[in-house]
Design goal:
163 residues; alpha+beta; Immunoglobulin-like; 3-stranded antiparallel sheet; 2 helices; 9 strands; 34% strand; rod-shaped
């Protein structure tokens, strides 16, 4: 098959006007050089279409079903649900100051965790017969901060948290 192709090319070259054949060779070589230079100088771009970024998330997680229940070791368990995957954190303190903050858990902003929808934080070593204020905090992957309203609970005589 290759022999047939070579034979056919030789026949075309023999039967074609030499000026036309020379012009065709110059045209092909010239276009090749032009394309090489065009790519080198950036006149022609390679690759896919420009990447468009997804719209930025500007909506904070909505916190719902916030509740407190008794915990061990003179503590309380704060739990809630968010509308999207987000982190878990609580600010709390003796009424009226929520001046203690728990560590952020399940934080999707770090890229190490996707976040969670159901949240739970245990508070320990609370004072007995004391009113505490608390609020739930959740950050979504976009960095939007959801904060619950301030809530209150009283610890019992024995020191375990009750609502």
């Amino acid at each position: 098959m290759l022999d047939n192709l070579v034979g056919r090319l030789k026949e075309i070259v023999r039967n074609t006007n030499p000026i036309l054949l020379s012009s065709l060779v110059v045209l092909v070589v010239g276009m090749t050089i032009f394309l090489i230079l065009a790519f080198q100088f950036g006149w022609i771009k390679t690759g896919s279409a420009p990447k468009t970024e997804a719209p930025k998330d500007t909506i904070a997680p909505v916190i719902s079903m916030l509740r407190v229940s008794e915990g061990a070791n003179n503590g309380a368990i704060i739990s809630w649900v968010t509308s999207e995957l987000s982190s878990t954190q609580v600010e709390y303190g003796i009424w009226p100051y929520a001046n203690t903050t728990t560590l952020i858990e399940n934080d999707p902003r770090t890229g190490l965790n996707a976040g969670v929808l159901v949240h739970q934080v245990g508070l320990t070593n609370l004072l007995p017969r004391t009113s505490y204020i608390y609020r739930a905090i959740s950050y979504d992957k976009g960095g939007n901060k959801g904060v619950s309203p301030d809530m209150q609970f009283d610890t019992s005589v024995a020191g375990s948290g009750t609502q």
